[in-house]
Each structure stands twice: as C-alpha cells, then as structure tokens.
Amino acid sequence: DIFFFFIVCQYEFFHYFELCKHLRKNVCMMKSRGIGFSEILASICANEYSCFKNSITMITAFDLGKLNKTFEKVTHALTFLNDKTDKGFFKLRQVQDSALLKKASFYKYVNGQKVEDGWMSQIEGIVADKPSKVRGDRAEIVMFEEAGSNPTLLKSFIQGEALVDVGGNKMGILIAGGTGGDSGPALDGLKTIYYDPESYLVLPYKHKYTDDNTEVLTGFFIPSYTALDLQEVVDSRGVVDTIKAREHYQLKRDRYKDPKALVIYCAEYCFTAEEAFALEGDNKFNKVLLSD
C-alpha cells in the first residue's frame, strides 16, 4: 500500500467539499469519466465514519451493482484503517457489520444489562430505485453515487433534504456526482441540479469550462483534460499541463468518423458540461440528431 497521489483538480474538489460542509451547502458535480471519483467518495465516507463520533453517512445508488462497487471501496478503506494504523483508527463493529451497513459499536454489560457502546458512527448503503427508499434517521452526509444514471435523482434529492435538516437547521449535506453518457430521465435530474445550484442549496462553482469560455455559476465541474494522470502531462506536484492533455484527448476524438460515436465519446470524456449533457439535448438541441 502506498500513499495516494492527487492531481490538482481532485485537490480542488476536496476544498470545495470542505467549504460545503462548513457552509452547510449541498454538493453537485459533473465530471469526466475515470478521475477516481468513486475512490474520493469512499475516502470521504471513511473520514466521516472514523473522525466524527455518532455520525451517520448514507450512500445511495439507483441499482445494487453500482452501490456494491462504491461500498466495497469504503469497506476496503475501513479495513485498512483497522489493520494498518496501529489501532489509531480501529473501530470495533460488533453490533452491525454487514455488506451494506457498518456501525462502530460494541456490546458491554452495565449492572448485568447488555448495552451498546462505542464510537457509534455508521455507514449505510441504500438501493434508491424508488425515492421513498431515501429515508431514515438524520444524517451528516447523504451521497447519491452515479447520479447521472439515476432517473429518480431529482425527487430523491429533494426528499433527502429531510435527512440533513433538523427543525429547520441544516445539520448535514447532500452529495450528487455523475458522468455524462446517459440520456433522458437518467441524466435529466443531475442536469437540472447542476445548472440551477442555488434552488437545490448547492454551493455554486464559478468557472469558464464552457463552449464559448463564458464565466458561469453551476455545480462543480471537472473536465477530462484537467484530470489526465500520465507521466508526460503531470508533474510531481500533481499539476497537469492542460494543453498537452487536450491534445491527448483530441487525438482520441479524431479517431471517430461517425458523428454519433464522437458525441458519445465526448460525453464520457468531456471538455465542457455541454458535452457531458450532449445526449440529453442540452441548450434545447439534441446533438446526436444534429449529427445525423
């Protein structure tokens, strides 16, 4: 095991996330594929569980397969902390330790009575194929994994506010992150939240990752050319040479002679959010139909 090597765009997201926690604002991210976001989510969950007593973290996904993949990464992180930190972050899970529920607690006897004690933080995984399943006790973090492939995201996100709001006081945050490539209802929810962050209590992110270099306020966005982890384009500090990275992806784009295939590839490895949402018909134009 080695220490993670972070690149700048990942480092920036962690800062954005900490600002959201401090300001009690929700998180919405649209990103290129392959930037390690599932590992980032897993580390955020493991941090909350390990460092904040009595905390509750919920991870949701539209289908069990996507949920299992993320939860396996969380379990791996917790196993590492239990085994490799000389008990510094060891958390006994005697009461609840199933595939989709981890609770840092144990049983003890007080005056002959069996009671639960310990750090009492927990992480739970929920298959949110119906918005009504995003229910439970209050939580510090409610995470919507693969939000760009969740046709019930918008309703689930709105209803999820009840889990992080106690008596009008926002005690936790919601996190929705996803990748382009889907279309229709699966992507529409993430698109709506991304372009209208303030309505959904998302911390707006100012950037110029747009087709015409216009400055906008949206959810957080990570284009493919800021996240390329190749030796020839990233230095020892994690700073990416974005010119070389764009050239790298442009060569890949130039392979596609079929316009439909090009649009699909650009949605997955996007330079702009407009490309990420291309299959959904962003700006009232469906780019796949236009390519025909």
Task: Please tell me about this protein's structure.
It is a single chain. The chain is an alpha/beta fold and 292 residues long. The chain contains nine helices and 14 strands. It has helices spanning 8-23, 37-51, 64-84, 153-164, 185-195, 242-253, 259-268, 273-276, 287-291, and strands at residues 27-31, 56-61, 96-98, 101-103, 106-110, 113-117, 122-127, 141-144, 165-166, 169-170, 173-179, 205-207, 216-218, 220-222.
Question: Which terms summarize this structure?
Answer:
9 helices; 292 residues; 14 strands
Topology:
Blueprint: H1 8-23, E1 27-31, H2 37-51, E2 56-61, H3 64-84, E3 96-98, E4 101-103, E5 106-110, E6 113-117, E7 122-127, E8 141-144, H4 153-164, E9 165-166, E10 169-170, E11 173-179, H5 185-195, E12 205-207, E13 216-218, E14 220-222, H6 242-253, H7 259-268, H8 273-276, H9 287-291
Parallel strand pairs: 1-11, 1-14, 2-7, 2-8, 8-11
Antiparallel strand pairs: 3-4, 4-7, 5-6, 9-10, 12-13
What characteristic shape results from the CA principal axes?
globular
Query: Structural class of the helices, strands and pairings?
Result: alpha/beta
Physical arrangement of strands within the biggest beta sheet = 3-4-7-2-8-11-1-14
The N- to C-terminal Cα distance equals 49 Å
Order of helices and strands: HEHEHEEEEEEHEEEHEEEHHHH
Mean pLDDT: 89
Largest sheet: 8 strands, mixed
- Estimate percent helicity: 25-40%
Beta content comes to 15-25%
Instruction: List the uncertain runs.
Output: none
